[in-house]
Amino acid sequence: MSVPVRRSAKPKPKPSYESLGFGKFFSDHMLIAYYSESKGWHGVEIKPYEPFSLDPAASVLHYGQALFEGMKAFRQESGKCVVFRPEFNWQRMVEGAKRLCMPMPSETQFVSWIKEVVRVDQDWVPNKKGASLYIRPTLIGTEGFLGVRPANEYIFFVILSPVGSYYSEGLAPLKIWIEEDFLRAAPGGLGATKAAANYANSLRAAFEAKQKGYSQVLWLDVERKYVEEVGTMNVFFVFDDEIATPKLDGTILAGGVRDSVITLLKSMNKKIVERKVTIQEIKDAALNGTLKEVFGTGTAAVISPVGELGSKNWKTTVQDGKTGPVAKALYDTLTGIQYGQLPDKFGWVQSV
Ligand SMILES: Cc1ncc(COP(=O)(O)O)c(C=O)c1O
């Protein structure tokens, strides 16, 4: 069943490619759906992008029931618009919603709603490699009450933002700060979810790292011994004899690009291992020359090489501060599939 569409009477001018950056512009329409215990999901509609009103006692504002996703639509060379692995994002959001005691639309609803809103705003999918339409599905508790319990009413909405590069550095390698004081997540917590709370928790560390001239932080585990992930990316280390990425242990977000990169590396016959990685072994490998590359993966960040790792009393340059061959090959292959220049061997893209 298709979603009713209320078209905007005042379509906005499209931003130029050069001005895109990340998350600064929003398309003409949004999708919204409502949930109540008695009615289930209802009232789904695509309507003009506009503010909505909330009860000041809405649970999202007090008890933080907020969960989101991040995915992208690409315009391929043929002009066709595709979305990348939407069922992966649905599955991850289902797990997060369970953790936060929230209801989720079904996979069929989620995927078809995403495709329908992208189709309505398909003119907003940029026509240039490197640019895309970022898709932000969001789920919030809207019931107004005080007292700590799950809400009985929710809104699921999807907004769309044409984006270029996530970092102001563009594709240039990043400087990353090893965070030894603040903690992102602990076992049993929210680390594996895309709960808004995780990002609120990350702001102070990122702010302080920026003041020191670093783009993002590399989070360590609760013992400050093992590497977890970077701000909004999963992290990979290319050693002499293997490529390693921290294994998923409940405190790390299971990235869709991480999963895709593991598949791509295997298809390139590279030795890729998911395991615990200590910060000490990174320091040792940097010192003895066996740390060849570091890069982050994420929907927004794509494949982002790391050119410098710094901490309170130690720092190192990686790959002479340049993009390494593994990161470059992965970037070319992943974006080649997304933009339709390479065959979609793994069935990752879906037409909208
Ligand atoms: C904390 C965190 N880790 C990892 C990722 C990468 O996940 P994905 O590849 O699904 O975008 C993100 C992405 O948005 C993130 O916010």
What this model shows, in words?
By secondary structure, the protein is α+β, with helices and mostly antiparallel strands. It folds into two domains: 17-164, D-amino Acid Aminotransferase, Chain A, domain 1 (2-Layer Sandwich); 174-338, Alpha-Beta Barrel (D-amino Acid Aminotransferase, Chain A, domain 2), CATH 3.20.10. 24% of the residues lie in helices and 29% in strands. It is built from seven helices and 17 strands. The protein has helices spanning 59-63, 86-99, 107-120, 196-211, 256-267, 279-288, 325-338, and strands spanning 29-36, 40-48, 66-68, 71-75, 81-84, 132-141, 153-163, 174-178, 216-220, 227-230, 234-239, 243-246, 272-275, 291-298, 302-311, 314-317, 349-351. β9 (216-220) and β10 (227-230) form a beta hairpin. α2 (86-99) packs across α3 (107-120). The protein is globular and about 60 Å long. The chain starts with 28 loop residues before the first strand and ends with a strand. The model has no long low-confidence stretch (mean pLDDT 96). Pyridoxal-5'-phosphate binds next to α5 and β14.
